[in-house]
Amino acid sequence: MTGNSTSVVEEIKPKRRSRIREGHETRILVAAEDVFAQFGYNGASVEAIAERAGMSKQNMLYYFSSKEILYHQVLKTILDMWLEKMTLLAQAGEDPAAMLENYIRGKFEISRTHPNGSKVFANEIINGAPHLKEYLRERLLPQLEADLALVRGWIADGIVDPIEPEHLFFTIWASTQTYADFSAQIELSLGKESLEADDFTRAGDFLTHIILKGIGLKS
Amino acid sequence: MTGNSTSVVEEIKPKRRSRIREGHETRILVAAEDVFAQFGYNGASVEAIAERAGMSKQNMLYYFSSKEILYHQVLKTILDMWLEKMTLLAQAGEDPAAMLENYIRGKFEISRTHPNGSKVFANEIINGAPHLKEYLRERLLPQLEADLALVRGWIADGIVDPIEPEHLFFTIWASTQTYADFSAQIELSLGKESLEADDFTRAGDFLTHIILKGIGLKS
DNA sequence: GGGGAATTTTACCACATGGTCCAGGCAGGC
DNA sequence: GCCTGCCTGGACCATGTGGTAAAATTCCCC
After folding, report:
1. Strand C–CB A41 distance below 7 A
2. pLDDT tens digits, one per residue of B13-48
3. CB A104 within 8 A of CB A172
4. Contact B163/A136, CB-based, under 8 Å?
5. Which among A37, A65, A93 is the end of a domain?
6. Same domain? B52 vs B108
7. Alpha-carbon distance A138 to nearest alpha carbon in chain B (angstroms)
8. CB B38 within 8 A of CB B83
9. A85 in contact with nucleic chain D (CB within 7 A)
10. The model's pTM
11. How far is B170 from chain A (nearest CA, A)?
């Protein structure tokens, strides 16, 4: 450090301790993601999270004043990253096949790099999404609608088969997330200790092939 | 044929009372499936399960002496039904396209009729399958191996594209179960209160189309 | 190096939960 | 009648957990 007149971060006021604070907060968030993924919301004790983060429970509660708040933060962090990549389809301005492939590969990449986040999210949805139904409605639906419109356009233009685009997305979501969420089952089936980058690549190859050819895009 | 004078073992005598017992046990199992699905293992209190089953906690514990035992029973019941249908592929002796379609439709049917069981199962797998890893290894793997061999045969015969059959099954599993496990998200996306038979049919249409055409089967 | 905020620790509580104990109720067989 | 297995409910307990209050300590900036 030894910088000049402390600056740069300009978080209004809380700039002094913010380095410690930020470090600890991210450590806590990572630990919480781990523990929530493995034990679910109810099964995760704040003590276990604090321990994994390397501090006392009380100290952790100093940064996140309740388990509920911490959980919300974890969910939000994950979902924001999620939704950001979710736009891939509407953004990569190439031909439909390339757009879909990018979308699929992108989702696989998230599953590979953030399996714990995916599991927390999955747990939440399975239990009826009590914490983020509204958030999904506000943020996921608009993006989905845009993507659906795009695919419907392709169908109207005769570029792809007349399938129901909703189910296309459900299938892509499910098939990509399963390699994160159900990794235990996949690993068991493949006889591996853990999934590696290569496995995700091959899964991506398969799904891309199936989807593109399946909707009539692959020549 | 009524009981002998000396109660030799427990197996024979319980005939009159066993009607009550059986009724209560199934009621408890159904209730437990519900509650475990919605709240996970840790989030489900035995009191909540008992209440949904319409009896006192103490009485429920008379039939299933612990939460753990009850959970095991729920998991086992679900999984047995699962695996039974899992064989569909190896059993329906028609052409590959029909076999695959039957398999896919069968899995959708389970998702539609047993969403809660599916959710309990999903929760368990996400958390690393601590309770049933061994059971899966013993019962799921052999069936999967047989199915994989079948598909590899089709590939060798040039009937389907040279894809990796493992990923074919992972995709089918994921895409069918998602309509049970992630129903909250699907319902939200479709703007429906709940999924109906028709929705599952259309999802089945889509997945069948994609898979068959995707692996080069659809004529 | 002193002031005061930011951080960490010590001690503790209220409460839900899984599970036990025990007293009693309800049938039929003698 | 009454004895004996099956069933049911009330009271209770040990434990783990989320959360609080406040003292103690560290750390930055002047």
Report:
1. no
2. 444 456 677 778 888 999 999 999 999 999 999 999
3. yes
4. no
5. A65
6. no
7. 11
8. no
9. no
10. 0.88
11. 7
